[in-house]
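From the pipeline queue, job 12 of 40. The input is one protein chain; the requested action is below.

Action: predict structure.
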Amino acid sequence: MVTFIIGLAILFVGAALYGKFCERVFGPDDRKTPAYTKQDGIDYVPMRGWKNSLINLLNIAGTGPILGPIQGILFGPIAFITIPIGNIIGGAMHDYFSGMICLRDGGTQMPEMVRRYSNKGVYTVYQIFCSLLLLLVGAVFIYTPGDIAATQVFGFDGKATSVSTWVIYGVIFAYYLIATIFPIDKIIGRVYPIFGAILLFSAIGVFIGLFVKGYPLIELWDGWNGALVSYGDYFNANHFIPIFFITVACGILSGFHSTQTAIISRTMKSERQGRNTFYNMMILEGFIAMVWAAGAMGVYNLGLQAADASLATSTIGVICKDILGNVGGIIALVGVIVLPITSGDTALRSLRLAVSDALHLDQTNVKKRLGLAAIIFALVAVILVFAKSNAEGFNILWRYFAWSNQTLSLFAFLGISVWMFENNRAKYVWMPLIPGAWYAFVTITYIANAKIGFNIPWTGAYVIGVAAAVIYVGVIIWYGKKRAASKKFV
């Protein structure tokens, strides 16, 4: 338990220090925000600071900070240290600057941010890549909460041939459609406080239960091969780098988050709320990831659940019910179900906004919003049917989702870096470049080796990954300096 506590101390102390540093580097001021200058009663709507923070937390925290850590903890207690460090200097910094730059630039969405701070070619690639990811997110975040609800809350079999499965999917689908087309303060702004209360009960309940139940956790300095689980062997056999960083994903870094912070940039009353709304909410997601990683290690070490990455979904139910009992466990499971649902709805909302911005489509009329949403939802439905009907469908979907989620962050780090060059902050460009270089290495190495990628042997994959990271950093520095110089003489 000591390593777990040390990890939490790193997370919260580090966040207090580095979050303040990020705020000082950006320099929020008292200018009017887009929520006022572009107020339209639909997407540009001034909302209270606590509500923006809660909405952003629920937007970014899907199944990633739960399923990822449950699988990632199989690598051993190193996860309790890696998650908080990566979250502080990577994920939270990524979310803060993405959200703040979109806020200052008039509430732009991420495709527009990428266009402003790169070129047409990069923008086109990002627009396509981002749209595909958001479609995957929409499908994944109907599938996973639907299956958890079906099998662990209502007791159905969750099979593709069961009517109950598709009824549950349909209910989630209908909610997504409503949340996608209605004004943000009418649906999302009203139901999220309720969802937030359930989420907090789930996370804090499991956290307290870890200590009350005395869950046995492996320490960093102990032998990693316990009586029931051989964490050390798993670590050695499964290439901690890059597999761990693709698996854990959202608890450390998520490119998807930038698409969500951009939505909140249109509802914030003040730039000075950014640190709490963007940076600190990602830190809370890191806390959620730490809690579920510890819970999973506890049930694995007690033999309550087999230590098998493919059983991550069922592990959630074991943790909830063992720690909180049947009633509390059901409430906690509802909290887990809430997470992906509150990310899926805004994923599809941000896709609608991004497509409408790119194609200059008027979205002030309900019928026009519904028309665009109908096309998006039809595509999500096709993906969902494939994933559920094909034996390997969801595994394929999840692997591509996890990899593309991390890869998307490279575009945000590019935009942040160039923004720094153009705004007299070039001496701080190491802030986005360090995590950017790391994830360029991680994502390229992974896809080079993976069966869903190029199936290149590990040695070759690592060489390609290093080369990609070096090229990524070199090109950004060259391009950023070029943009800064051209702007200086305009």
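Job complete. The two ends are 58 Å apart (CA to CA).
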